[in-house]
Records
---
Amino acid sequence: MSTNYKVNANKTFEFDITKAAVLSLDAIEVAEGKYHLLQNHQPYHIEILKSDFNKKKYIIKVNNNTFELDINDDLDKLINEMGFATSSKKTVDSIKAPMPGLILEINVEEGQNVQENDPLLILEAMKMENVITSPHDGIIKTITAIKGDTVEKGSVLIEFAP
Protein backbone atom coordinates (compact mmCIF):
# COMPACT_ATOMS: atom_id res chain seq x y z
CA MET A 1 0.00 0.00 0.00
CA SER A 2 1.47 3.35 -1.00
CA THR A 3 1.75 6.22 1.43
CA ASN A 4 -0.52 8.94 0.14
CA TYR A 5 -2.44 11.35 2.32
CA LYS A 6 -5.65 13.22 1.61
CA VAL A 7 -5.68 16.45 3.62
CA ASN A 8 -8.84 18.44 4.19
CA ALA A 9 -8.27 22.02 5.36
CA ASN A 10 -11.11 23.90 7.08
CA LYS A 11 -13.61 21.43 5.56
CA THR A 12 -13.22 23.46 2.36
CA PHE A 13 -9.97 22.65 0.60
CA GLU A 14 -8.83 19.12 -0.14
CA PHE A 15 -5.48 18.09 -1.54
CA ASP A 16 -3.31 15.01 -1.89
CA ILE A 17 0.24 14.74 -0.62
CA THR A 18 2.74 11.88 -0.64
CA LYS A 19 5.03 10.77 2.16
CA ALA A 20 7.99 11.54 -0.13
CA ALA A 21 6.78 15.14 -0.50
CA VAL A 22 6.49 15.50 3.26
CA LEU A 23 9.98 14.10 3.80
CA SER A 24 11.44 16.46 1.20
CA LEU A 25 10.16 19.61 2.95
CA ASP A 26 12.80 22.10 4.05
CA ALA A 27 11.52 22.57 7.60
CA ILE A 28 13.29 23.34 10.85
CA GLU A 29 11.76 23.09 14.32
CA VAL A 30 12.55 26.41 16.01
CA ALA A 31 10.68 25.71 19.26
CA GLU A 32 8.37 22.99 20.52
CA GLY A 33 5.46 22.86 18.06
CA LYS A 34 6.84 25.76 15.99
CA TYR A 35 8.51 25.36 12.62
CA HIS A 36 10.09 27.46 9.90
CA LEU A 37 9.45 26.11 6.39
CA LEU A 38 10.98 27.22 3.12
CA GLN A 39 9.00 26.21 0.01
CA ASN A 40 9.72 27.60 -3.47
CA HIS A 41 11.86 30.36 -1.90
CA GLN A 42 8.89 31.45 0.27
CA PRO A 43 9.23 31.38 4.08
CA TYR A 44 6.39 30.04 6.22
CA HIS A 45 6.06 30.18 10.00
CA ILE A 46 4.04 27.20 11.22
CA GLU A 47 2.72 26.52 14.71
CA ILE A 48 0.82 23.42 15.80
CA LEU A 49 -1.92 24.75 18.08
CA LYS A 50 -3.75 21.48 18.77
CA SER A 51 -3.19 17.90 17.69
CA ASP A 52 -5.12 14.65 18.03
CA PHE A 53 -2.80 12.01 16.64
CA ASN A 54 -5.32 9.16 16.96
CA LYS A 55 -8.08 10.99 15.08
CA LYS A 56 -5.54 12.56 12.68
CA LYS A 57 -6.91 16.05 13.33
CA TYR A 58 -4.74 19.13 13.77
CA ILE A 59 -5.18 22.86 14.17
CA ILE A 60 -2.22 24.79 12.81
CA LYS A 61 -1.30 28.40 12.21
CA VAL A 62 0.59 29.25 9.01
CA ASN A 63 1.77 32.88 8.81
CA ASN A 64 -1.06 33.97 11.17
CA ASN A 65 -3.76 32.05 9.25
CA THR A 66 -5.40 29.21 11.21
CA PHE A 67 -6.33 25.90 9.56
CA GLU A 68 -8.16 22.83 10.83
CA LEU A 69 -6.66 19.77 9.14
CA ASP A 70 -8.14 16.28 8.78
CA ILE A 71 -5.64 13.79 7.40
CA ASN A 72 -6.58 10.44 5.86
CA ASP A 73 -4.28 7.80 4.40
CA ASP A 74 -4.84 4.87 2.04
CA LEU A 75 -5.98 2.64 4.91
CA ASP A 76 -8.66 5.16 5.91
CA LYS A 77 -9.85 5.24 2.28
CA LEU A 78 -10.01 1.44 2.15
CA ILE A 79 -11.95 1.27 5.43
CA ASN A 80 -14.48 3.79 4.08
CA GLU A 81 -14.84 1.92 0.77
CA MET A 82 -15.47 -1.35 2.62
CA GLY A 83 -18.18 0.29 4.71
CA PHE A 84 -16.43 -0.21 8.04
CA ALA A 85 -16.06 3.48 8.85
CA THR A 86 -17.74 4.64 12.01
CA SER A 87 -20.17 7.49 11.90
CA SER A 88 -18.58 10.84 12.70
CA LYS A 89 -21.63 11.82 14.78
CA LYS A 90 -22.51 9.72 17.77
CA THR A 91 -26.24 9.18 18.09
CA VAL A 92 -26.53 8.43 21.82
CA ASP A 93 -29.71 10.12 23.02
CA SER A 94 -29.63 9.05 26.67
CA ILE A 95 -27.28 7.97 29.43
CA LYS A 96 -28.23 4.75 31.20
CA ALA A 97 -26.77 3.36 34.39
CA PRO A 98 -24.03 0.91 33.38
CA MET A 99 -24.47 -0.91 36.72
CA PRO A 100 -26.59 -0.67 39.85
CA GLY A 101 -25.39 2.03 42.21
CA LEU A 102 -25.92 5.23 44.18
CA ILE A 103 -26.02 8.70 42.56
CA LEU A 104 -23.42 10.72 44.50
CA GLU A 105 -23.32 13.88 42.42
CA ILE A 106 -25.01 15.46 39.40
CA ASN A 107 -22.79 17.97 37.59
CA VAL A 108 -25.22 19.29 34.95
CA GLU A 109 -28.62 20.96 34.70
CA GLU A 110 -31.46 20.62 32.21
CA GLY A 111 -30.92 22.87 29.19
CA GLN A 112 -27.14 22.99 29.74
CA ASN A 113 -24.77 22.67 26.78
CA VAL A 114 -22.14 19.96 27.32
CA GLN A 115 -19.05 18.93 25.40
CA GLU A 116 -17.86 15.42 24.69
CA ASN A 117 -16.20 13.92 27.80
CA ASP A 118 -17.66 16.53 30.19
CA PRO A 119 -18.50 14.87 33.55
CA LEU A 120 -22.28 14.47 33.90
CA LEU A 121 -22.64 12.63 37.19
CA ILE A 122 -20.89 10.35 39.66
CA LEU A 123 -22.30 6.87 40.28
CA GLU A 124 -21.00 4.88 43.24
CA ALA A 125 -20.95 1.14 42.64
CA MET A 126 -19.07 -1.52 44.59
CA LYS A 127 -17.45 1.20 46.75
CA MET A 128 -15.97 2.88 43.65
CA GLU A 129 -16.88 6.28 42.28
CA ASN A 130 -17.56 6.13 38.52
CA VAL A 131 -17.60 9.41 36.63
CA ILE A 132 -20.17 9.19 33.82
CA THR A 133 -19.14 11.51 30.98
CA SER A 134 -20.93 12.89 27.95
CA PRO A 135 -20.48 10.72 24.83
CA HIS A 136 -20.81 13.76 22.54
CA ASP A 137 -21.50 17.50 22.40
CA GLY A 138 -25.14 18.27 23.10
CA ILE A 139 -27.83 19.82 25.26
CA ILE A 140 -29.22 18.14 28.37
CA LYS A 141 -32.96 17.63 27.84
CA THR A 142 -33.98 15.88 31.07
CA ILE A 143 -32.30 14.56 34.19
CA THR A 144 -34.17 11.66 35.78
CA ALA A 145 -31.40 10.82 38.26
CA ILE A 146 -31.66 12.32 41.73
CA LYS A 147 -28.70 12.80 44.04
CA GLY A 148 -28.82 10.16 46.79
CA ASP A 149 -31.07 7.73 44.88
CA THR A 150 -30.08 4.17 44.08
CA VAL A 151 -30.50 3.13 40.47
CA GLU A 152 -30.69 -0.21 38.69
CA LYS A 153 -28.54 -1.19 35.73
CA GLY A 154 -30.08 0.21 32.53
CA SER A 155 -32.05 2.98 34.27
CA VAL A 156 -32.20 6.16 32.19
CA LEU A 157 -30.28 8.87 34.05
CA ILE A 158 -29.99 11.72 31.52
CA GLU A 159 -31.55 12.41 28.11
CA PHE A 160 -30.13 14.65 25.38
CA ALA A 161 -32.16 17.02 23.24
CA PRO A 162 -32.36 15.92 19.59
---
Amino acid sequence: MTLQNKIDFAVVFTVNKANPNGDPLNGNRPRQDYNGHGEMSDVAIKRKLRNRLQDEGENIFVQSDERRNDAFRSLKDRADSVEELKKLLSDAKADEELAIKIASDEWYDVRAFGQVFAFKGTKMSVGVRGPVSIHTATSIDPVDITSMQITKSVNSTTNTTNPGQKTSDTMGMKHRVDFGTYIFYGSINPQLAEKTGFTSEDAEKLKQALITLFANDASSARPDGSMEVNKVFWWEHNNKIGQYSSAKVHRSVKIERTVDGLATSFEDYDIQVEPLEGLDVQVYDGL
Protein backbone atom coordinates (compact mmCIF):
# COMPACT_ATOMS: atom_id res chain seq x y z
CA MET A 1 0.00 0.00 0.00
CA THR A 2 1.38 3.43 -0.98
CA LEU A 3 2.30 5.53 2.04
CA GLN A 4 -0.69 7.62 3.16
CA ASN A 5 0.61 9.56 6.17
CA LYS A 6 3.66 11.71 6.67
CA ILE A 7 6.41 10.22 8.83
CA ASP A 8 9.17 11.93 10.78
CA PHE A 9 12.05 10.20 12.55
CA ALA A 10 15.15 10.91 14.62
CA VAL A 11 18.13 8.67 15.39
CA VAL A 12 20.55 9.05 18.31
CA PHE A 13 23.84 7.16 18.11
CA THR A 14 27.19 7.14 19.88
CA VAL A 15 30.75 7.00 18.58
CA ASN A 16 33.44 5.57 20.84
CA LYS A 17 37.03 5.71 19.59
CA ALA A 18 36.06 5.56 15.93
CA ASN A 19 35.98 7.70 12.81
CA PRO A 20 32.31 7.91 11.79
CA ASN A 21 32.88 9.83 8.55
CA GLY A 22 36.32 10.99 7.45
CA ASP A 23 36.80 14.15 5.42
CA PRO A 24 38.96 13.38 2.35
CA LEU A 25 39.87 17.08 2.03
CA ASN A 26 41.24 17.12 5.58
CA GLY A 27 43.45 14.04 5.78
CA ASN A 28 40.41 11.84 6.49
CA ARG A 29 39.95 13.40 9.93
CA PRO A 30 36.45 13.02 11.40
CA ARG A 31 34.21 15.81 10.16
CA GLN A 32 33.59 18.80 12.43
CA ASP A 33 31.75 22.09 12.07
CA TYR A 34 33.31 25.43 13.01
CA ASN A 35 32.16 25.03 16.60
CA GLY A 36 33.87 21.68 17.02
CA HIS A 37 30.72 19.55 16.85
CA GLY A 38 31.18 16.26 15.06
CA GLU A 39 29.34 15.69 11.80
CA MET A 40 28.38 12.74 9.66
CA SER A 41 27.08 13.56 6.19
CA ASP A 42 23.64 12.55 4.95
CA VAL A 43 25.42 10.81 2.06
CA ALA A 44 27.33 8.58 4.50
CA ILE A 45 24.10 7.76 6.36
CA LYS A 46 22.33 6.84 3.13
CA ARG A 47 25.29 4.63 2.18
CA LYS A 48 24.87 2.67 5.40
CA LEU A 49 21.11 2.45 4.87
CA ARG A 50 21.63 1.12 1.35
CA ASN A 51 24.07 -1.47 2.69
CA ARG A 52 21.63 -2.62 5.37
CA LEU A 53 18.74 -2.85 2.91
CA GLN A 54 20.95 -4.72 0.46
CA ASP A 55 21.85 -7.16 3.27
CA GLU A 56 18.13 -7.75 3.75
CA GLY A 57 17.64 -8.67 0.11
CA GLU A 58 16.43 -5.36 -1.36
CA ASN A 59 17.48 -4.50 -4.90
CA ILE A 60 19.78 -1.45 -4.64
CA PHE A 61 20.83 0.78 -7.54
CA VAL A 62 23.74 2.69 -5.94
CA GLN A 63 25.83 -0.23 -4.68
CA SER A 64 29.35 0.06 -3.30
CA ASP A 65 31.65 -1.60 -5.80
CA GLU A 66 33.34 -3.75 -3.15
CA ARG A 67 30.02 -5.23 -1.95
CA ARG A 68 27.98 -5.31 -5.16
CA ASN A 69 25.85 -8.40 -5.73
CA ASP A 70 25.72 -8.23 -9.52
CA ALA A 71 28.17 -8.00 -12.41
CA PHE A 72 27.77 -4.28 -13.10
CA ARG A 73 30.70 -1.94 -12.45
CA SER A 74 28.85 1.35 -13.05
CA LEU A 75 25.44 2.93 -12.58
CA LYS A 76 24.98 3.13 -16.35
CA ASP A 77 25.62 -0.59 -16.74
CA ARG A 78 23.11 -1.32 -13.99
CA ALA A 79 20.50 0.96 -15.56
CA ASP A 80 21.10 -0.58 -19.00
CA SER A 81 20.45 -4.04 -17.57
CA VAL A 82 16.74 -3.13 -17.47
CA GLU A 83 15.95 -3.24 -21.19
CA GLU A 84 12.79 -1.15 -21.07
CA LEU A 85 14.55 1.58 -19.08
CA LYS A 86 17.55 1.50 -21.42
CA LYS A 87 15.23 1.96 -24.39
CA LEU A 88 13.48 4.94 -22.80
CA LEU A 89 16.75 6.66 -21.86
CA SER A 90 17.90 6.29 -25.48
CA ASP A 91 14.87 8.21 -26.78
CA ALA A 92 14.77 11.98 -26.24
CA LYS A 93 10.99 11.96 -26.68
CA ALA A 94 10.27 9.00 -24.40
CA ASP A 95 7.76 9.06 -21.55
CA GLU A 96 9.69 10.38 -18.53
CA GLU A 97 7.02 9.31 -16.04
CA LEU A 98 7.21 5.74 -17.34
CA ALA A 99 10.98 5.77 -16.91
CA ILE A 100 10.56 6.98 -13.32
CA LYS A 101 8.06 4.21 -12.61
CA ILE A 102 10.28 1.49 -14.05
CA ALA A 103 13.33 2.65 -12.11
CA SER A 104 11.38 3.09 -8.89
CA ASP A 105 9.79 -0.33 -9.18
CA GLU A 106 13.17 -1.93 -9.84
CA TRP A 107 15.31 -0.40 -7.07
CA TYR A 108 14.44 0.36 -3.45
CA ASP A 109 16.87 3.26 -3.08
CA VAL A 110 15.52 4.97 -6.20
CA ARG A 111 11.95 5.02 -4.91
CA ALA A 112 13.20 6.03 -1.43
CA PHE A 113 15.99 8.57 -1.97
CA GLY A 114 15.57 9.44 -5.64
CA GLN A 115 18.20 9.33 -8.37
CA VAL A 116 19.37 11.21 -11.45
CA PHE A 117 19.63 9.07 -14.59
CA ALA A 118 21.95 11.12 -16.80
CA PHE A 119 24.69 9.11 -18.45
CA LYS A 120 27.03 9.58 -21.40
CA GLY A 121 25.41 8.29 -24.56
CA THR A 122 21.79 8.59 -23.37
CA LYS A 123 19.41 11.03 -25.02
CA MET A 124 17.08 11.65 -22.10
CA SER A 125 17.93 12.64 -18.54
CA VAL A 126 15.51 11.57 -15.82
CA GLY A 127 15.42 12.96 -12.31
CA VAL A 128 13.60 10.97 -9.63
CA ARG A 129 12.74 12.92 -6.50
CA GLY A 130 12.51 10.52 -3.57
CA PRO A 131 10.21 10.89 -0.55
CA VAL A 132 12.85 10.11 2.11
CA SER A 133 14.98 13.06 3.21
CA ILE A 134 17.78 12.78 5.79
CA HIS A 135 19.73 15.49 7.58
CA THR A 136 23.44 15.56 8.40
CA ALA A 137 24.12 14.00 11.82
CA THR A 138 25.61 16.40 14.39
CA SER A 139 27.06 15.67 17.82
CA ILE A 140 25.29 17.10 20.86
CA ASP A 141 28.54 18.51 22.25
CA PRO A 142 31.88 19.35 20.63
CA VAL A 143 34.05 16.26 20.15
CA ASP A 144 37.72 15.64 20.85
CA ILE A 145 39.70 14.10 18.01
CA THR A 146 42.80 12.02 18.67
CA SER A 147 45.39 11.52 15.93
CA MET A 148 48.13 8.90 16.04
CA GLN A 149 51.08 8.10 13.85
CA ILE A 150 51.01 4.58 12.43
CA THR A 151 53.55 2.58 10.44
CA LYS A 152 53.38 -0.49 8.24
CA SER A 153 55.75 -3.33 9.01
CA VAL A 154 56.68 -3.84 5.35
CA ASN A 155 57.21 -1.61 2.33
CA SER A 156 54.55 -1.56 -0.37
CA THR A 157 57.33 -1.68 -2.97
CA THR A 158 61.00 -2.58 -2.61
CA ASN A 159 63.31 0.31 -1.74
CA THR A 160 65.57 0.31 -4.80
CA THR A 161 68.21 2.47 -3.07
CA ASN A 162 68.47 0.29 0.02
CA PRO A 163 66.16 -2.74 0.21
CA GLY A 164 66.67 -2.92 3.97
CA GLN A 165 65.27 0.56 4.65
CA LYS A 166 61.62 1.52 4.94
CA THR A 167 60.06 3.80 2.34
CA SER A 168 57.96 6.86 3.07
CA ASP A 169 54.70 5.06 2.30
CA THR A 170 55.04 2.99 5.49
CA MET A 171 54.16 6.07 7.55
CA GLY A 172 50.62 7.32 8.04
CA MET A 173 48.06 8.87 10.38
CA LYS A 174 44.89 7.53 11.94
CA HIS A 175 42.20 9.73 13.47
CA ARG A 176 39.27 9.01 15.77
CA VAL A 177 36.55 10.67 17.80
CA ASP A 178 37.20 9.79 21.45
CA PHE A 179 33.49 9.89 22.30
CA GLY A 180 30.45 11.63 20.88
CA THR A 181 26.68 11.37 20.94
CA TYR A 182 25.16 12.32 17.59
CA ILE A 183 21.62 12.85 16.33
CA PHE A 184 20.13 13.07 12.86
CA TYR A 185 16.59 13.63 11.62
CA GLY A 186 14.57 12.63 8.61
CA SER A 187 11.11 12.54 7.12
CA ILE A 188 9.05 10.70 4.52
CA ASN A 189 6.78 12.71 2.23
CA PRO A 190 3.58 10.90 1.11
CA GLN A 191 3.05 13.10 -1.98
CA LEU A 192 6.46 12.15 -3.31
CA ALA A 193 5.89 8.56 -2.21
CA GLU A 194 2.91 8.42 -4.57
CA LYS A 195 5.14 9.33 -7.51
CA THR A 196 7.76 6.66 -6.80
CA GLY A 197 5.49 3.98 -5.35
CA PHE A 198 7.14 4.06 -1.91
CA THR A 199 4.89 1.95 0.34
CA SER A 200 4.11 1.54 4.02
CA GLU A 201 6.06 -1.72 3.83
CA ASP A 202 9.06 0.19 2.45
CA ALA A 203 8.78 2.61 5.38
CA GLU A 204 8.85 -0.31 7.83
CA LYS A 205 11.99 -1.66 6.15
CA LEU A 206 13.61 1.76 6.44
CA LYS A 207 12.77 1.87 10.16
CA GLN A 208 14.44 -1.49 10.73
CA ALA A 209 17.49 -0.35 8.76
CA LEU A 210 17.76 2.72 11.01
CA ILE A 211 17.58 0.54 14.13
CA THR A 212 20.38 -1.72 12.81
CA LEU A 213 22.30 1.03 11.01
CA PHE A 214 25.81 -0.10 11.97
CA ALA A 215 25.37 -3.86 11.54
CA ASN A 216 27.98 -5.31 9.15
CA ASP A 217 29.69 -1.90 9.02
CA ALA A 218 32.92 -2.70 10.88
CA SER A 219 36.26 -1.49 9.50
CA SER A 220 39.66 -0.48 10.87
CA ALA A 221 38.29 3.05 11.28
CA ARG A 222 35.07 1.79 12.90
CA PRO A 223 35.74 -1.40 14.89
CA ASP A 224 32.73 -3.53 15.70
CA GLY A 225 30.92 -2.04 18.71
CA SER A 226 32.50 1.40 18.40
CA MET A 227 29.36 2.88 16.81
CA GLU A 228 25.94 2.15 18.27
CA VAL A 229 22.38 3.23 17.57
CA ASN A 230 20.90 4.09 20.96
CA LYS A 231 17.43 5.44 20.18
CA VAL A 232 15.15 5.71 17.15
CA PHE A 233 12.12 8.01 17.40
CA TRP A 234 9.34 7.46 14.85
CA TRP A 235 6.31 9.72 14.41
CA GLU A 236 3.46 8.85 12.04
CA HIS A 237 1.05 11.72 11.35
CA ASN A 238 -2.65 11.19 10.61
CA ASN A 239 -2.61 12.90 7.20
CA LYS A 240 -0.37 13.52 4.19
CA ILE A 241 0.75 17.05 5.04
CA GLY A 242 1.36 16.30 8.72
CA GLN A 243 -0.21 17.66 11.89
CA TYR A 244 2.99 19.61 12.61
CA SER A 245 5.96 20.74 10.57
CA SER A 246 8.98 18.44 10.51
CA ALA A 247 11.02 21.17 12.18
CA LYS A 248 8.65 21.30 15.16
CA VAL A 249 8.53 17.52 15.46
CA HIS A 250 12.32 17.25 15.36
CA ARG A 251 12.69 19.99 17.98
CA SER A 252 10.53 17.97 20.35
CA VAL A 253 13.56 15.74 21.09
CA LYS A 254 15.37 17.31 24.05
CA ILE A 255 18.86 16.09 24.93
CA GLU A 256 20.78 17.44 27.93
CA ARG A 257 24.15 16.47 29.40
CA THR A 258 23.74 15.39 33.04
CA VAL A 259 27.42 15.51 34.07
CA ASP A 260 29.93 18.33 34.42
CA GLY A 261 32.68 18.37 31.85
CA LEU A 262 32.93 16.00 28.91
CA ALA A 263 30.42 13.19 28.49
CA THR A 264 32.03 9.77 28.18
CA SER A 265 28.98 7.53 27.70
CA PHE A 266 25.40 7.60 26.46
CA GLU A 267 24.22 7.43 30.09
CA ASP A 268 25.66 10.94 30.61
CA TYR A 269 22.70 12.37 28.65
CA ASP A 270 19.03 12.73 29.52
CA ILE A 271 16.75 12.36 26.50
CA GLN A 272 13.13 13.45 26.62
CA VAL A 273 10.48 13.90 23.94
CA GLU A 274 8.18 16.87 24.33
CA PRO A 275 4.56 15.70 23.78
CA LEU A 276 2.75 17.06 20.74
CA GLU A 277 -1.04 16.95 20.98
CA GLY A 278 -2.52 14.24 18.79
CA LEU A 279 0.85 12.91 17.63
CA ASP A 280 2.34 9.85 19.31
CA VAL A 281 5.97 8.83 19.10
CA GLN A 282 7.28 5.28 18.92
CA VAL A 283 10.66 4.77 20.57
CA TYR A 284 13.01 1.93 19.68
CA ASP A 285 16.34 0.94 21.17
CA GLY A 286 19.12 0.06 18.78
CA LEU A 287 20.21 -3.57 18.52
